[in-house]
Amino acid sequence: EIWIEVGGARYELTQFHYHTPGEHTVRGRPFDMEIHLVHRNDEGSLAVVGVLVRRGREHPLLDALAEHLPKPGESLAIEGEKVAASELLPGASRIFRYEGSLTTPPCSEGVRWYVLETHIEISDAGLAAFEAGLGKNNRPVQPLNGRELLVDRCRSRSQTSRT
Fold it and tell me: Residue 151's pLDDT is what?
């Protein structure tokens, strides 16, 4: 059971998925891949944590997940395997926060986004496996359209403070 707390409400992790290349930029710089950890609360509201990924060193969990990719448009439950989603998170990081939409159809609004500034890395072979399995499945970067972009500082994986 993995969850986050947003505005006093508990959001349970329901699934995670990947996009190649990434769907967010930091200071205009794109990323090779992005992981979306999708959380839902009891009322059905969504909060998504975006983890940015660059080509670099091996990442044991990502490299292992690359071996179990579903086909495009499919979901895959890996039976008998546990995935520690916390292993997909970088260390202390600033968090970019905004109200947005899903990045896949129906692109519903009202999604709380939390994109971690600090990226993680994946090996060349791991990234190649994700790219081969997923193809280019990202939504182009969208304009803010007047949305407010807030920045939080993360002191640890479980504590944040607003700046």
Answer: 95
pLDDT at 43: 96
pTM of the model: 0.89
Confidence class of residue 141 from pLDDT cuts 50, 70 and 90? very high
3 state SS for the chain: CCEEEECCEEEEEEEEEEECCCCCCECCECCCEEEEEEEECCCCCEEEEEEEEEECCCCHHHHHHHHHCCCCCCCCCCCCCCCCHHHHCCCCCEEEEEEEECCCCCCCEEEEEEEECCCEEECHHHHHHHHHHHCCCCCCCCCCCCCCCEEEEEEECCEEEEC
pLDDT tier at 68 (50, 70, 90 boundaries)? confident
Per-residue model confidence (pLDDT) at position 41: 97
For residue 44, the one-letter residue type is G
Domains of the chain are 3-162 (3.10.200.10)
With a CB cutoff of 8 Å and minimum separation 6, the contacts of 24 are 31, 34, 50, 52, 96, 115, 141
pLDDT at res. 80: 62
7 vs 104: CA distance, rounded Å: 25
